[in-house]
């Protein structure tokens, strides 16, 4: 497997830290269980630039930083691993569309570029929120309103969070990447 260059490693670390800062400063809390944020944008940019590997490492690093800043003790070891380590690393699946985004960015094919961006953001968002959904059923279901199953509670709260964050990230990246293709095109 090809190793990442020093440039990639530095960019991954910086963009993971930017995601952490965005998440801490700008997050729209709709309720205690629903939060919409565009903090995934830097990690998704890395995934479009360096592929699944780079995006996964950036997401993993962001998750670890998040755990250090805001430790979670629900479910002891398993819940934080699921919701911070695995879930955040899964944002890297956005990179499945890295080649397509890079190709269309080089060609200047805006409609195909935006379609690739949206598809990649959707894959990364769903991959992350599947883990939040599972953790919601297992660990957070006890907070469901009376008469509502843990499954439905997690589906609604994580579904709204995922859809809101997906739409926000897709819009932002669809505005940024076409106007500044160098963000996803690499030299090293």
From TrEMBL:
Q: Name one Pfam family in it.
A: Thia_YuaJ
Decide whether keyword Transmembrane is in the record.
yes
Q: Which residues cross the membrane?
A: 7-26, 32-52, 59-78, 84-101, 113-131, 151-177
- Where is it found, in Gene Ontology cellular component terms? plasma membrane
**Among its keywords, does the record have Transmembrane helix?**
yes
Keyword line: Membrane, Transmembrane, Transmembrane helix
A GO MF annotation of the entry reads: thiamine transmembrane transporter activity
**Could you tell me what this protein is called?**
Proton-coupled thiamine transporter YuaJ
**Gene source species:** Priestia koreensis
């Amino acid at each position: 497997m090809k190793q990442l260059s020093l440039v990639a490693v530095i960019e991954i670390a910086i963009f993971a830290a930017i995601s952490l800062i965005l998440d801490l400063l700008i997050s729209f809390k709709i309720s205690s269980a629903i939060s919409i944020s565009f903090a995934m944008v830097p990690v998704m940019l890395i995934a479009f630039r360096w592929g699944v590997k780079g995006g996964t490492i950036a997401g993993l690093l962001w998750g670890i930083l998040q755990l250090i800043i805001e430790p979670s003790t629900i479910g002891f070891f398993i819940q934080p691993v699921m919701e911070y380590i695995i879930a955040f690393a899964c944002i890297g699946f956005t990179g499945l569309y890295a080649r397509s985004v890079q190709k269309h960015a080089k060609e200047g094919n805006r409609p195909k570029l935006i379609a690739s961006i949206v598809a990649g953001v959707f894959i990364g968002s769903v991959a992350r929120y599947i883990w939040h959904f599972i953790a919601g059923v297992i660990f957070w279901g006890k907070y469901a309103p009376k008469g509502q199953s843990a499954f439905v509670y997690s589906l609604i709260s994580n579904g709204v969070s995922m859809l809101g964050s997906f739409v926000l990230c897709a819009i932002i990246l669809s505005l940024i990447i076409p106007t500044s293709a160098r963000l996803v095109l690499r030299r090293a």
